[in-house]
Amino acid sequence: MTIVENYLNIPKIGKVKAVFHRAIEGKIKTVTVSKTPTDKYYASILVENDAENNQTLGDKIIGIDLGIKDFAIVHDGEQVVKYSNPKHLKRHERNLKRKQKKLARKVQGSKSTNKFRKLVAKVHEKVSNSRQDFLHKLSRNLVNESQVIVVENLNVKGLIPNRKLSKSISDAGWGMFVNFLDYKLQRRGGKLIEIDRFFPSSKTCSCCGHIVDE
Asked: What is the DSSP pairing of strand 60-66 with strand 70-75?
């Protein structure tokens, strides 16, 4: 696999015109080409580059409490910063329902069915892209200023069956966010600590460690 100007030179296929979101720096290791439900093709390029590892770590040790109203409440021992939940799915929910209703009325196997299936897929793709963009940017900002990040080991699968909260929990992307924090910290020599979800952090005194009953 080689890159020539604005083209990917793929073995057995040849030159394919591509739009690059950033400059490719380093030795190319692998390239994974995937197709989305909206018929878009993406090439994920893995390169060997030590530039990120040479960056200095931040000096903070922070704790993050993940939630639905506030996506993340970050505490560094001195101040608390709240990051509101963008609620990506809710912003597109009306548009999605309208397109799904139109799709349901179409005859299975017809050209119009395939057309509206793509329209529905585009909405889902937009929601997914905006969610990942938010999670990547927030995790990068927190990793840049920290050497240790502490989060609660949430049982996301156990919370999903809750009918009232399942959609909001799935939309938040807590698990994806923790994964982003983990691999970004590892690349820079930092550390992610997951505490047990039953640890009585709210009942424990930060000075002497005494645990109150209520």
From this structure: antiparallel
Question: Which residues partner with 70 through β-bridges?
Answer: 84
Those residues whose C-beta lies under 8 Å from the C-beta of residue 190, and which sit 6 or more positions away, are 57, 143, 146, 147, 148, 149, 184
Q: Tell me the range of 13-27, 53-67, 94-108 where mean pLDDT is highest.
A: 94-108
Rg (CA), the chain: 22
| Claim: this prediction has a pTM higher than 0.85 | no
pLDDT given at position 131:
92
Distance CA 95, CA 183 (A): 34
Q: Which one is predicted more confidently, 124 or 21?
A: 124
DSSP β-bridge partners for residue 80: 75
8 Å CB contact between 61 and 150: yes
CA angle 48, 53, 54 (to 5 degrees): 120
